[in-house]
Design brief:
205 residues; mainly alpha; Rna Polymerase Sigma Factor, Chain: A; Arc Repressor Mutant, subunit A; 2 domains; 10 helices; 0% strand; elongated
Length: 205
C-alpha cells in the first residue's frame, strides 16, 4: 500500500507571478542529492518525495500556467501533477533525468484536464507567440487569442507546445509519448482549423 501523500504540506499556495511565467528550469541538471531523494521516494519515503516537490514545484507551476488562465486551475493542475508522479514513481527509470520524466507527467496531466474543458478557456501567452512568429503567414494578422480559444483543447495544447514553447516535432513526440507522424498530422490539422476559423484560404503547401 502506498504511504500517505506528502503533497499537502509541501506544495505552496502559489509562487510569485514572475516565477510562474518562467519557462526556465530551476537548475541546470540533476545532483547527487536529488538522485538520493529519487531513490528514497521510489522506496516509499514521503519525506524524500516532499523534497522533490520543493525542488521542482516552480517549474511545474510555470508549465501549468502556460495552459490555464485561472490561478485555481494552475494550482489544480500542479497538484495533480505531483499526485500522479507520486503514484507512478515506480515507473520512472533513471536512464533520463527525473526532471524530464516529471515534465512529461505534467504535460499529460494538463492535456487530460484541457480535454475536459470547453474550448472557451483561453491558454496564456500562446496567442501572442503565434501572432508574433516572423513567418509572414496571414495568421499573424488575426486575433490569435480569440481564435485559439475556439480550437478544440487538443489542438490548443499542441500549438502551445509547438508555437509558444518552440518545441520541435521530435521533442513534442518524446514528451507526450506520441509518434512523430502523429504529432505532424495533429499539428497540420490544428493549423488548418486555425486558418479556417480566421477565414483564410488553405495553404498551398
Amino acid at each position: 500500500m502506498q504511504p500517505c501523500s506528502p503533497l499537502s504540506r509541501t506544495v505552496p499556495e502559489a509562487p510569485p507571478v514572475w516565477l510562474a511565467s518562467s519557462q526556465e528550469p530551476v537548475r541546470p541538471g540533476a545532483t547527487p542529492q536529488e538522485d538520493e531523494w529519487v531513490r528514497s521516494a521510489r522506496a516509499g519515503d514521503p519525506e524524500a518525495f516532499g523534497e522533490l516537490v520543493r525542488l521542482h514545484q516552480r517549474r511545474v507551476w510555470g508549465l501549468c500556467s502556460r495552459f490555464f488562465a485561472q490561478r485555481s486551475e494552475v494550482e489544480d493542475a500542479a497538484q495533480q501533477t505531483f499526485l500522479t508522479a507520486w503514484s507512478k514513481l515506480h515507473t520512472y527509470r533513471a536512464r533520463a533525468p527525473f526532471e524530464h520524466w516529471l515534465t512529461r507527467v505534467c504535460l499529460r496531466c494538463c492535456y487530460r484536464e484541457l480535454r475536459r474543458r470547453p474550448a472557451a478557456t483561453e491558454p496564456l501567452e500562446t496567442a501572442s507567440a503565434v501572432a508574433s512568429r516572423p513567418t509572414g503567414d496571414a495568421c499573424a494578422r488575426v486575433d490569435a487569442d480569440r481564435l485559439l480559444a475556439r480550437l478544440p483543447p487538443a489542438d490548443r495544447f499542441l500549438l502551445v507546445l509547438l508555437e509558444s514553447f518552440g518545441l520541435s516535432t521530435a521533442e513534442v513526440a518524446e514528451r507526450l509519448g506520441w509518434s512523430r507522424v502523429n504529432v505532424k498530422v495533429r499539428a497540420h490539422r490544428a493549423r488548418r482549423r486555425l486558418r479556417t476559423l480566421a477565414g483564410l484560404p488553405e495553404s498551398s503547401r
